[in-house]
Amino acid sequence: MPRHIVCLTFDFDTQSGFIARGMVSPTPLSRGEFGLIGAQRIRHLLRSHNIRATWFIPGFTIESHRGACEAVVQDGHEVAHHSWAHVPPAQQSRAEEEADLVRANEAIARLTGRKARGYRSPAWDLSENTIDLLLAHGFIYDSSLMGGDYWPYRARRVDRVELGRPFHRGEETQLIEMPISWSLDDYPHFEFVRTADMVLPGLQSARVVMENWLDEFRYMQANVDWGVLTYTMHPYVIGRGYRMLALEQLVAKLQRAGAIFMTMEDAAAEAKALHALPDRASAR
Ligand SMILES: [Zn+2]
Questions:
Q1: Alpha carbon of 28 to ligand 1 centroid (Å)
Q2: Could you tell me the pLDDT band of residue 191, with boundaries at 50, 70 and 90?
Q3: Does the pLDDT value for residue 278 go beyond 70?
Q4: 187: CA distance to ligand 1 center in Å?
Q5: Rounded distance from Cα 219 to ligand 1 centre (Å)
């Protein structure tokens, strides 16, 4: 019996990403603030389609916008780890990374009553310590790597690379990797960002992007018996009216096509059980 799973995931950053990048004047902060309105719209959409989703919420958002985060929990969604201050681990020492990891997990435990099972790094840039730290702190899955699409795989300890030498694969761990892609992330498609040294143009047609995202599901459905497709969105990005309209149409089409919507925690548990089956362990 084929199973084609979709994880809708929302990185509820609010102002944290702007602050981490030093964009602290009133207008960038207000862009992050718009995420509070976006989150309400997303919760309404999910409720009306009876879907449970996964919200990666930085500790910053939990401690700054408590009511908005409690509403996510009350709706029955999974709350997963997305750092405290939205600083990418690749920019932190091991001690800094672990301190941030612990602080954010304590905020999640106060909000939900339990620590996070899943982790997604800010800006999708892990350090060489991240996998070890996640294992040490009891995480089941990570969702920050791009080495697959529909088939979750086991995250590896540091791969060794050196210019001019062959690739050396690190040791596989028990941590389940739920792969992601910038192509399935709302941010680069939609968000207009101008800084001193770059312009991210964004502002693409929401309908066109959602058609691409639907085609990704169709391809999975046509080519694998079992798979997980993960979409990544940000409330302050996807929460604009015309994008919400396009997202709602995507969700309706996915439901008609037979998509099974799950939290990432549940999808990772199912993947882990399949990995335990010898004939599926290497299937892709
Ligand atoms: Zn984020």
A1: 15
A2: very high
A3: no
A4: 10
A5: 27
- How close is the Cα of 18 to the center of ligand 1, in Å? 10
pLDDT at 282 over 50: no
Q: How far is the CA of 85 from the centre of ligand 1 (A)?
A: 10
Query: Is the per-residue pLDDT at 281 higher than 80?
Result: no
What is the 269 CA–ligand 1 centroid distance (Å)?
23
- Reading the block at residue 91, the tokens are 């920019």
Q: For residue range 84-112, list pLDDT tens digits in order.
A: 999 999 999 999 999 999 999 999 999 99
Which residues are found with C-beta within 5 Å of the ion, ligand 1?
11, 13
Confidence of residue 1 (pLDDT cuts 50, 70, 90): confident
